[in-house]
Amino acid sequence: MQQRTFLQSFVSKPEFGPLVLLVLELMVFWSFNSDFLSLPNISNTLSFTVELGLIALAMTLLMTAGEFDLSVGSVFGFSAVLMWTLFNSEMMPLGVAFLVAIAASLLIGFVNGWFVTKLNIPSFLVTLGMLLVVRGTALYVTDGFPQRTWNAEGNLFANVLAGSYFIGSFRMYMSVIWFALAAVAAHYVLTKTKAGNWIQASGGNPNAARARGVNVSRTKICLFMASSAMASLAGIISSIRTSAANPNSGTGYELEVIAMVVIGGTVLTGGRGTIIGTVLGIFILRVMRNGIVMIGVPGLAYNIFIGAIILGMMALHSWLERRHNSGV
């Protein structure tokens, strides 16, 4: 009876559906192409998976608090452009330029949060406007041209952020380590700390949270700042890895990141989120992108698969939620 209860509890968790889907994906793609699970392909998949993953972790916390951030894709591109413009013009060292870019992203996040909490404007509209402002600024400053990054070759700071090393034949990227540390920290904050309780209360019932002494406005502003900062870090890491800082980088990333979070089981209306589920959602979508290319499906069909997965996972989450509430 105890074993049955444990199984029922496990199946009812929001992470169960994403876990099953990820395992099925791996099995299907590996059955079509045995190179899918080869060490070089796993390394290649991880190299670009974790960059969006960094944004998705912060987005999970923000969505748990009941808000969205559509400006993360534009911040992803803008921060890299800003850092490399400052560095290539010899205005400041790379490390200082990095701090300036992060500070600019924190300011963007603060403005987003202030508009949402103080002026009571929906985050969808605020961050959509910020998306256009930030993207437009990046395009205006660069005249639409990518910035050079290769001057930093061999730079210790760049290697710490986005370098790589080999473990046998497996190439490990530093960004994977940063992602793992960020995931552990985010999971701990959400599930083990008072701040995590504030985040969930702010999204679940803001009025009740205020009555219990939670500063909902400050909590949400901090989360908007964290979302922008993680988007900035991800964009900078990507620019170092690809040797390109394009003002158009990150276009469409905001929707893909939200899809990762939703597929992972975070509730759209706020109040409940799961970092473990988000990590699974991250790998579901990026493994899908890699897998369909390896088995010969045109890459342009990727959005079809994303849409189908979102619809399927929403139906599954709804079914599991009903079963859980009915006590089955």
Task: Give an account of the 3D structure.
With about 325 residues, this protein is mostly helical. The protein has one domain (about 30-325): ABC transporter involved in vitamin B12 uptake, BtuC, CATH 1.10.3470. The protein has helices at about 1-10, 15-30, 40-65, 70-90, 95-120, 125-140, 155-160, 175-190, 195-205, 205-210, 215-240, 255-265, 275-295, 300-325; strands at about 165, 170-175. A two-stranded antiparallel ribbon has the order 1-2. A hairpin with a 2-residue loop joins β1 (about 165) and β2. The relative contact order is 0.20.
Quick description:
The chain is mostly helical and 328 residues long. The protein is 74% helix and 2% strand. The chain has helices spanning 2-12, 16-32, 39-64, 72-88, 94-118, 123-142, 156-162, 174-192, 194-204, 206-211, 216-242, 253-263, 275-294, 302-326; strands spanning 164-167, 170-173.
Mean pLDDT: 86
- The number of distinct structural domains comes to 1
Following the backbone from N to C, one meets helices and strands in this order, namely HHHHHHHEEHHHHHHH
The CATH topology is given as ABC transporter involved in vitamin B12 uptake, BtuC
Content of β-strand? under 5%
The biggest beta sheet is recorded as: 2 strands, antiparallel
CATH class: Mainly Alpha
Task: State the helix count.
Answer: 14
Number of strands: 2
Shape: globular
Low-pLDDT segments, ≥5 res: none
Question: What is the share of helical residues?
Answer: over 70%
Second CATH tier, the architecture:
Orthogonal Bundle
Distance between the termini: 14 Å
Q: Widest sheet: strand order?
A: 1-2
Radius of gyration: 20 Å
